[in-house]
Structure formats: structure tokens, C-alpha cells
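ok so dumb question maybe but i'm new to this and my supervisor (M.) told me to 'just get the structure for Transmembrane protein' and walked off. so i did the thing. is this what she meant?? sequence i used:
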Amino acid sequence: MRLHTRGDTRFHPTRKAPKPPSTKTDVESQKKQLETKKRSLCQKVDTTGVLTIFLGPPVLLLAVTFLILFWWESMKAINGGDPEVYWFRIVNADWATRLITICTTAIRTVVSFQAGLATAMVAGVVLETKGIPLLQGPLYSILRAVKAAPSSLFTATDFRPHLPPFISTLVVAEVLVTAASQFLSTIYLSDFTSSTFTQSNNSTNVSLLDTEFSTASGWWTMRPAASWTFAELSEPFKEGSNFHDTGHTYRALLPFDEEEHRTKLRRYQGPAPVMDQRVICAPPPLVNMRLDATDQDEIHISGQIPMQNLSYPLSVGQDSYGPANFTCKLPTPLSWTINTFGQSSMCIATQQRNWTVFSTEDPLVQPHGYATASVMWLVLDIVSMASVVRAGSQNVAARVAGNDGPWAIVTHGNDTKTLRVSACLINVAVETIVVGLNSSSDNPEPTISWDRTTNSYNTEAARRQLGASRTRESLASRGVLSLEPRSQWGAVLPLNDSSTGDTDLPAFFLAVDVSLPTLLMSTDNYTYSPGVLLADDGTGFYSGSAENTHVEMFQDTLNTTASPALAVQVVLARIFQMAYYEQLVKMAGTATASTGFSVSSSIPSQWTGFIIGTTLIATHVVIVTIITVQFARHTNSTIIGNYWQTVSQVVSDETRPILEQADTMDDAEVKRWAKRNLQNLKAYRAVRSQHDGRTTLDMVGSTREH
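this is what came out, is it supposed to look like this??
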């Protein structure tokens, strides 16, 4: 076929066109067949349209399902749960953002195809129902074949598409959804932040506690290198009329030398050194006491504690030998005031190694055969330095004048309170036990910083970590891991000397006892019980005082809680950690543990962007579904994607004059020509069957015979 100029209007087909029906009966019969023939939805669209209708929704559902699962597992990971293996593979391979890109690309592709199909369907519905002005007939008919974007219904008609209100609303909504879908990737990625989660469990070699210690270090006179985090299983603080009890406080030390491993540990199943740092303090029955202030630099108090027939809380074993003798050094403050604060000391009540102290209910390690792990500490706190000085150069007798909660009030010569004493029991036994540790977040180790305003160390964060409160906060808020209940603990591994194989349970923490300053500085004139001065004015460093951070940890705890039990627990917990971690790198024995550490990666941390993006997709699906139903119900003469049909259906008696003139005109010229030469241009035309059996545009409401 050739395209001819205006001067030659003949049409030269390669084949003869079929002859029209020769009789009126044949015309009516053909018309009736066309009217009664109803096409199914699949017959009204081309192959691409069928695939778009039936394969598009599963693709959208699959892509959204992938995103839902990824978001769900990401939230689970952020909250400390255990995501599925596929999630770890995606994140570890750095495919998180790529997954979003792939899914949103698939979604945008389907949305684009479905939007184009919906545009063609809208054109078909409008052409076969309400109709359109004559001059818009070619546009709407062509849209059924080319399946353009929904915005074409507005842009190609100068934003006067003459659509029914309901259809117009659907088209506007689809235009907005289609435009917004171009930013789906950005919308979904808006939920991504750098988040921390727990990696899958891995096998790790950890060091086992052994006893290769030749000498003790000066733990009490050294500043802690860190505020090591740990795992804890504890009971509430208990208080009676004459005692303070921290309750069982099981703590597992983390067998990792590097801070990053400790702070990022989320899950652990394996051997770890565990001890019960429970402390019980009560007023001791002191007898035969003497206060010696003859040397102002070596003030000390001595006496005895009868060990037989003591009742709870100072219960002792039945195999105790005689009274506990003690000689405890006292600090010498610079200010000799009546009301003295912050002048304390601690010492072990006896140097005997063949008696049992701690036999309270359910100890972690039974005292039998491990007597040196059961220790009675005396906490001495000067109440009036002026009263101490009144002793002058004498070695005076002292006595207990009464009790004040867990304290025994000591005086001499008169009823003036001189100092208060509390006996604190603690079992420092440690055993290596297979335990499970868990945490839902990282556990940073706080630092003890210097406060220039108060001219002292700020110990609040460190004390909070160690639970220095009568009402303990949650483990997560303290930055401490959770130790599983005792019923879930596994085997106990013996504490062996890696060189000889001998079991030597108390050797490690005996190093803590023998490093006490007053034992190391004892002279021929004064033989002190192992102890340490805890004076917050910094005096007495040359005569047995602890390093300032230990002092302030003790004094701050004592001042804020008024509990000697908590103060002793805090300072001893830190000393035990110092001794353990200083020796950890030297330990030769190893074992396998299952560990899960936290890592940081860019993953979804909220649902906002996901909800917005998925809502856009759902809105699109609803719009396309409604348009498809409308198309299936209200059209019969449209077959989407058929070009010849779309051209043929706009060729009618009304459009033929325009077609004969439009071959050299643009649309504006055609519009001007039609306004001058044709009538009823604004009247609506719809595609319908004509009297000659053809389906073409015809005026809506026309009474001509069909």
C-alpha cells in the first residue's frame, strides 16, 4: 500500500476488500452476531496484557514478601533475636541495599506495565460508555493500542480529558502513585540506619583459669586499667535490723583480654570463671579490744571475735578454732574533728588458714576443703578522730557501746562514739563452670574520670555497673550481661595447675589477700592483719592506703547506700577483676566456647518507609483491579493492543471529512477547520455498532438507525 497526495485519493489494496452485505437482512444478521458475541477479558487484551494481568500481581507479591521478611528479620536482629540464616548471608555479603534495588526495580517494572494497561482500559471504557468529543476520538482510540502512561490522558488533552468523575479520580490517583513509585528505592532505604546486631554463633578458643602465679601484684595500690564488664545473676538486696545482705551475686568474668570482644559479646556458651560475690555484714561481738594511738602515724585497733555459737548472719562452721584475732590499722586524717567522714579501713579478721567462716545457705563453693576462700573482713570507719586522739600516747581499752544496724559502735573511756565496725563475710571461691551468657545490646565499659569541680573522681558510672545500689537497676541499663540460672549451668572444670596438673582452687585469689598493703608493710613493732586504708583525703599513702580510685569507689558507695556490704562488694569486685585480667594473657589452658558478637551494618531499623512504599503498591493494585473490572463489564468492542482496530474505529461518516483534510495539517489547524465546517463538535461520541455492521464513533444519544 502506498501513501498518496491529496490529488490522488484512490486506495490501492493488495487484496480486494470484502463486499458489503448485499441485502438488509444480511446487514441485520451480521449486526446481531456482533452484538451477541461477548468476549472474555483475555480476549479483550493482547498477549502482553494477559501476562501483565496474571503475572504482575505474583511478581509484586513476591517482591513485597522478600522485603517483609528482610525487615522482619532485621527488627528481630536489632532487638537481640536470632535471625534466619538467609538474612545473615544477605547482610554479610553486603547485599542489603542491592536486595532493595532488585525488588523495587521489579516492582516499578510491573507497575509501569500495569499502569499502561490501565490507561488503555480507561480509554476503552470511556469510548464505549460515556464517550468523548469528536476531536479527541483518535487520541483515545490510539491509547488503547499503545498503552501509554496514565498522565497521557491529561497531558495530551490539555488537562481536559472529559472523564467521568469516578474514572477521573482513579486516573489521578494512579498518576500520583506511578510518579511516587519512581522513588520506591529511596523510600525503602529511608528505613536503613547503621544498626548493631548479633552475629551467628561461632566457635572460639578461650583461656582457662589456672594457677601459674609466682607473686602477687599490688592490686590495691594500682589504678584499674578498665571497668571490665561481666555477666551477673543476682538476688535482691536484703536488710534486717542488724545486718545487710547483698544476696547471692553470681558473676562470671569474661575470658577475653580485648575490650572490643568483651563489650560486643552478645552470646556465650562455654567455660568461664564464676564466683558468688555475696557479702553479708553485721555487728561483730568484739572483745579484748585495745586502741593504740601512741604513734599518730600507726594508729591501730586490736581485739578478738569469739567464733563459737554465732548465729545468723554471722554463722560459722562447726570446725572453727578459737577466737579470731585481729590487729587493724586505722587511717590518720589531717583534720582531727569530732564528726569525721570518709576515714575507713578494711582488714581480714584473722591470719589463720585452718578455719571456716562462711557457711551460709547454698554457697557456690562449699567451704569444706576450701577454708581460705571464706573470709571475714572487718570494715572500720572512724566516727570521731578527736576521740581517737584523746587516747593520747596511751594504749587504751575499747568496748562496744551498742549497735547501729550492721555496725558495732566502739568507744573508749567515755560514751563518745569513736568508730564503727562491721564484720562482713564473703566467699571468694571461684570455679570454672560451663555457663551461658546473653545480652541484647553492647555493654560499654565506663571510665572513671576526674571531676575538676569536685576535685575528685566521678565514680557514678562504674558503681552503677557494679550494682552499688540497694535497688539494683536492670542488667541492660548497667551494661552487664545476663548469666543463665544455676539450673542451666553445665560441668564444673577443675582449676588445675597447667604445669603440674594439681588441683589448687584457692591459689588465684590468695594472691589478692597477700597483696593487701598493711600486711606487706608490717614491721617488727606492728604486725597487722592483711588490710588496706580507704581514706578519701589521700593521707597515709606511705602507710597502707589504697589508690584513690579504690578509695572513692568505696567511700562513694558507702555514702550513697549507707551499706558496708555494698561498699565491700564494689571494691572487692574490682580488685578481683584486676587480678584476673592481669594474668589472663599468661594462662596456658584453653577450651572451646560458642560466641556471638555484635556487628554494625546498614539495615532497616524502622517500618516507616516500608509502610509508605507498600501502601503505594497496594493502592496501585486496588486502582488497577477496579479499572480492570470496569473494563471487563463495560466494553465489548475493544481489543487492547490492536492498531488496525483502533484506527478503523475512528473512521466514520463524521470523521471522514476531517481525515480528507488532515493529512497536511497539524492538530491546531484541524481544530480550527473543524470549528468552521462541522457541527456538534462538543457532543460526545462513543464507539458502537453502526447500521452497516461496522463499529465506529457515533454521537451519544443519536436516534439514527443502527
